[in-house]
Design a protein that fits this description.
2,3-Dihydroxybiphenyl 1,2-Dioxygenase, domain 1; Glyoxalase_6; 14% helix; 155 residues; Glyas_Bleomycin-R_OHBP_Dase; VOC_core; 4-stranded mixed beta sheet; VOC domain-containing protein; alpha/beta; 6-stranded mixed beta sheet
Length: 155
């Protein structure tokens, strides 16, 4: 099977707010079409936004009876402080700052306007060049993307 295109699709109660957030954060372009929006990026990938009027955002870090996180996105950046300012200016929320801001491999956890969790990460090597990702609260391997939209695969 050949994969021709991959689109990450997020559910959201407000398509315009959600697509504007991701376009602003990742320097993308919003394409609005009725009940479906998508944000395209120069690197050729997209984030789709579909309506979910009864959407219940996940509870992070997953304690309590509410919907718990099922997936999140990682974005590798050069400057965590600059990234934080941009996320907050666009309407995102800081859920958890980096545990130790002095270590070279660290991450902040945020929520987008609809409440989807995502991380901004910095690594001591170039994104994708490290053999291990920064220590995480979740288990497993992940893929991330730099804010410029380039892939940051972790083997």
């Amino acid at each position: 099977m050949r994969i021709r295109q991959t689109i990450v699709v997020l559910d959201a109660p407000d398509l315009a707010a959600e697509s504007a957030f991701w376009a602003g954060l990742l320097d993308g372009e919003v394409h609005a079409g009725g009940d479906w929006h998508y944000v395209s990026f120069d690197a050729g990938w997209q984030i789709g936004i579909q309506p979910a009027p009864d959407f219940v955002p996940p509870e992070w870090p997953g304690e309590g009876p509410r919907q718990q996180q099922q997936i999140h996105l990682d974005f590798y950046v050069d400057d965590l402080d600059e990234g934080r300012e941009r996320v907050l200016a666009l309407g995102g929320r800081l859920l958890q700052p980096a545990a130790d801001p002095t270590v070279p491999d660290r991450f902040d956890v945020y929520a987008d306007p609809a409440g989807h969790p995502f991380c901004l990460c910095v690594a001591s090597g170039e994104a994708g060049a490290t053999t291990e990702p920064p220590r995480r609260l979740s288990v497993g391997r992940r893929r991330g993307a730099a804010l410029d939209g380039s892939a940051a695969a972790v083997p």
